[in-house]
Amino acid sequence: MALVRYFAAAQEAVGLDQERRAEATLGALRAAVAAEHPGLGGILPRCAVLVDGARVGDDTALSGDVLVDVLPPFAGG
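The chain above was modelled as a monomer; its predicted structure follows.
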């Protein structure tokens, strides 16, 4: 089961800092969290979504205990 951590604007949109999810792929997870948390839908396409610290494709399987971080774009330089 994936532990999804939300940061900054994503955390504000969802109202949680983390949650456990059971979707089989990253793409399924992205679709499910956008549907369940409508405020996230507007920013999720701009977010970096990392699985165990790496950027991966939506077809990536989320098997076992994985860590998924949802990181909105950060301002600054």
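Residues 3 and 67 are 5 Å apart (CA to CA).
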